[in-house]
Amino acid sequence: MDNLKKLLAPKYIDAISSVDEEKKIISFNNDSVHIALQENRNLICVFAYVQPKKALEKKECVDIANSWNQKKIFMLLCYDEDVFRAEYYLSYAGGINVDNLNASLDYYFSLLSGFAKSLNEYCSD
């Protein structure tokens, strides 16, 4: 985890709210966004949970996730138990550098923000 933290830009280091060495998870922004190392697969998984602002039918949520996944190829949405999980995977099998990791995190956060905004708009209708 220390090696991963060394690659993070200062804005991400400052946003760290907790580190679970055993589970290999770094959490940001009051534990709302997480980075998990999946060493057996040489992957870094960035994920967050997004709660709809109002109760929606499960079919509606599955349709929202499926529609997002058809249009956006980098952030995968899953829906389970009344919450969306927004996942983004980076392979580090060939190594990873500071610029790539931080640009990927920037992109993930922009996608996450875009999804949260569109979900809020959907729930406001």
Care to describe what's here?
The structure is a single chain. By secondary structure, the protein is an alpha+beta fold. It is built from four helices and six strands; from the N terminus they run ααββββαββα. The chain has helices at 2-7, 10-14, 58-71, 98-124, and strands at 16-20, 25-28, 33-38, 43-50, 76-80, 83-91. Strands 1-2-3-4-6-5 form a six-stranded antiparallel sheet. A hairpin with a 4-residue loop joins β2 and β3. It is elongated.
Strand content: 25-35%
H/E element sequence: HHEEEEHEEH
Strand tally: 6
Shape: elongated
Any low-confidence stretches, pLDDT <50, length ≥5? none
Radius of gyration: 15 Å
Keywords:
single chain; 125 residues; alpha+beta; 6-stranded antiparallel sheet; 6 strands; 42% helix
Brief synopsis:
By secondary structure, the chain is of the alpha+beta class. It is built from four helices and six strands.
Explain the layout of strands and helices.
Elements: H1 2-7, H2 10-14, E1 16-20, E2 25-28, E3 33-38, E4 43-50, H3 58-71, E5 76-80, E6 83-91, H4 98-124
Antiparallel strand pairs: 1-2, 2-3, 3-4, 4-6, 5-6
